[in-house]
Amino acid sequence: MANGKAVKDIMIDVFEFPHIPYWFSLRQAMGIIKKSVLESTKCVRPIVILVFDEKYNLVGTLTQVNILKGMEPQFLKPTTKAQMPEDSLEGLSVLWDSLFSKESAALAEKPVSEIMIPARLFVEQNDPITKAAYLMLHNDLVLLPVLEGKKKLIGVVRMIEVFDEVSNAILNG
What we know:
The protein contains 6 helices and 8 strands, in the order E-E-H-E-E-H-H-H-E-E-H-E-E-H.
């Protein structure tokens, strides 16, 4: 399937993808996302930012959802789904306009390392696209880092390109 193509055929070079150091604040990450979405054709939504350490090792990823959850006021965070049924959201109608305000502005100063998703799955550049598809599907990922020689990060492969290749293989027989 996917016409025998390898990950390297659809990957994006790591330096063409937005990235930040782990000590950046959520506020700084929001600025990177806004700039990347507005100025780049390479980064279509859902956007993911790569998070690096001081030696330029990939340590995690960060999405828009991660950032918003990181700034969500504590009183809105239910510990279980049963604690915040849909009906109880109606009672918050007075608060909706002020939810992401003072408390969220303060929370936006915390480092992205507190909310990023740690990088734990990778593919090699010569791996088949179907391996990337499998890892993404079974781990709910929209992006996978691509390594060279099991060490050096050289790029990323996104679900949008994986989907395109798999769907082309099926539709075009």
